[in-house]
Amino acid sequence: MTLKISFTNHYGQVTVKKLLEEKCLIPRKIRHFLRMKKHVLINGKPVHWQELVEEKDQVLLLFDEEDYPEKTIPFGQKELVDCLYEDEHLIIVNKPEGMKTHGNEPTEIALLNHVSAFVGQTCYVIHRLDMETSGLVMFAKNPFILPILNRLLEQKKIKRDYLALVTNHFPEKKITFKDKIGRHRHDRRKRVVDEKNGKKAITIVKPLKYLPKTTLLSCQLETGRTHQIRVHLAHHHFPIIGDPLYHPKNSAKRLMLHAYRLHFTHPLTLETISVKGDSKTFEKGLA
């Protein structure tokens, strides 16, 4: 066996099938492996698919190497990792601005490589931040939890809150931007509002603090399009200070966008996880 996943059933009385499929959101292919190999153990004993699992029963899932082929990446520098939350399945770290979440080439060293060195094994990206953006990023510590966390993200069950310092005074109310976002025709780095061919994008924005010529905003993502917050705010004439793509005339030293909070329910423990990051570096730019 190459991987063992154990957890306590907190979902009440439920069949094995429903527990793995509907509660734990385990993908069909993985459920098939577990069922065919009889690699689901409840309180240490193999069970049938329709057998009942009771509240607080101990669940053990066993995986062979063929279920999850080993994947290795170059390790980075573990001392560069600012870890804010970690359990046996996932880790949340604070990414500095100017660092990529993951490399574009197999040998390129980025935050993913540093986190893998910190954990001591290959980790997996759940969501990413633009290189210029600082703040919280979540990684899976094993391939089992990866698709489960990805599904939570798709179902909007992982809430991501950002701080943004923008040009001009934002209206004194919460606004939800729903402009569709697509690729720029002539600049592959950029995205634009494109109601005809773009993809659904929803950003909830509310003002937090008014400064002489700028506004500090709280932004919450309901979808995760590339450059979503940056494009929505620039399109509505509130470009982010220091944005090299959507506010290039501004001379700020950094993009004033920071992912400061992640909030979700852990899919295996049902704990409410709310992590708030350090925004001191970001706040220096408000002065």
Automatic annotation (TrEMBL):
Q: Which UniProt keywords apply?
A: Isomerase
Enzyme Commission number(s) from the entry: 5.4.99.-
Q: Which reaction does it catalyse?
A: a uridine in RNA = a pseudouridine in RNA
Decide whether keyword Plastid is in the record.
Answer: no
**Domain of life of the native organism:** Bacteria
**What does this protein do, in the record's words?**
Responsible for synthesis of pseudouridine from uracil.
**Xref: NCBIfam families:** rluA_subfam
The entry's family comment says: Belongs to the pseudouridine synthase RluA family.
Protein name, entry field: Pseudouridine synthase
State the organism of origin. Streptococcus pacificus
